């Protein structure tokens, strides 16, 4: 990875932590809304990541629950993914969690930051180090 990209990502990650800590809502439901994916690492959609071309992604948060619809292209085929669950706070982060049955192998939940009407998330799930991961920026739609 180019050194300037590492510096930018490190500063961006630090900025998210500071801004998220300063902008945490005042209570449950302050994050309610519908958020549409606007760009990935500043590039407008569609964006290629790991063999998929991201076309659209929408996250709806409503009274402690969330639902998500993603549309990607794989091998020239449109794939629509739907998921849902419950929201839990982890400090300044919102964890888009879901029920995972006992003994099941489930993916780790996505974690997002809500900053000034935007959701910010990285593609990383298991590692706090997001320096190599793309930044997904969602804007609230009305």
Q: How would you concisely characterize the structure shown here?
A:
The protein is mainly beta and 142 residues long. It has 1 helix and 10 strands; from the N terminus they run αββββββββββ.
CATH topology: Lipocalin
Unreliable parts: 1-28
**How many helices in DSSP terms?**
1
Query: Rg from C-alpha positions?
Result: 15 Å
The CATH architecture name reads: Beta Barrel
Largest sheet: 8 strands, antiparallel, barrel
What's the average pLDDT?
Answer: 78
Biggest sheet: strand arrangement: 1-4-5-6-7-8-9-10
* Domain module count: 1
Overall SS class: mainly beta
End-to-end CA span:
38 Å
User: What percent of residues are in strands?
Assistant: over 45%
Shape designation: globular
For the secondary structure, the number of strands is 10
* The first-level CATH class name: Mainly Beta
Q: Into which percent range does the helicity of residues fall?
A: 10-25%
């Amino acid at each position: 990875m180019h050194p300037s990209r590492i510096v930018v990502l490190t500063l961006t990650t630090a900025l998210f932590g500071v801004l998220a800590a300063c902008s945490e809502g005042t209570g449950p439901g302050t994050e309610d809304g519908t958020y549409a994916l606007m760009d990935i690492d500043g590039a407008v959609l569609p964006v290629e990541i790991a063999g998929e071309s991201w076309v659209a992604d929408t996250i709806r948060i409503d009274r402690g629950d969330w639902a998500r619809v993603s549309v990607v292209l794989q091998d020239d085929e449109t794939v629509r993914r739907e998921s849902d669950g419950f929201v839990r706070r982890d400090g300044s982060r919102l964890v888009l969690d879901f029920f995972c049955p006992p003994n099941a192998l489930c993916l780790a939940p996505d974690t997002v930051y809500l900053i000034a009407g935007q959701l910010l998330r990285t593609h990383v799930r298991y590692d706090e180090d997001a320096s190599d991961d793309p930044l997904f920026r969602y804007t609230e739609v009305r």
